[in-house]
Amino acid sequence: MTRWIHGSGTETSMPTATLLVLAYFFVSMAAWPREATSPAATKAAAATRRDAARCVTQSDVDACNDAIRRNPSDPALLVALADALIHAKRTADAVRYYRRAAALAPHMPDLAAKLSAAEKRLASERTPVPARRTVQSASRAAVDPQVARASSGMASGKPYSNAAPETQSH
Predict the structure, then answer these.
(1) In a 3-state reduction of DSSP, which class is residue 63?
(2) What are the residues whose beta carbons fall under 8 Å from the beta carbon of 103, sequence distance 6 or more?
(3) Smallest Cα–Cα separation from 105: which of 76, 82, 81?
(4) How far is it between the farthest Cα atoms of the chain?
(5) Contact 91, 121 (CB under 8 A)
(6) To 10 degrees, the CA torsion angle through 33, 39, 41, 42?
(7) What pLDDT, in 10s, does the model give residues 31-69?
(8) How far, CA to CA in Å, does 39 sit from each of 51, 52, 162?
(9) Which of 26, 116, 131, 154 has the least CB density, counted as fewest CB within 10 Å?
(10) Residue 95 and residue 124: Cα distance in Å, rounded?
């Protein structure tokens, strides 16, 4: 075993010297000044965590928007906002945020299913319902010929159209 002799006349072994060097290294790392965080940065980080938690747990749209304003590329927050928008019956907005999250994280679990369900719901909301003639108006037209002409567009016997009227030349 190698022994070192200090200026004071004491001997130190190699493992002891290594241990002392490592201890000095770890103590110096612990005392190294870290990046100071300002109170404003700490407050903003706390607000972001609070808004993200309210967004996910309570489906709070305003909290989701605040959290996304601070961290716009977080796909989990985008999905939580879209879920909150579905809950608030704002399907078109939800589809937009689901698509944005899918662009950022295409392999996120359940995202494709949520997007598909929201798109189907949006399509069903936008499908126009054809106008139906009521039974009452159909029966009145059968009884009263004047009502029949009015319902067919021939109330006064004159045909109406959107065509331009004929003009006279001089």
Answers:
(1) helix
(2) none
(3) 76
(4) 133
(5) yes
(6) 90
(7) 666 665 678 888 888 888 999 899 888 989 999 999 999
(8) 18, 20, 71
(9) 131
(10) 13
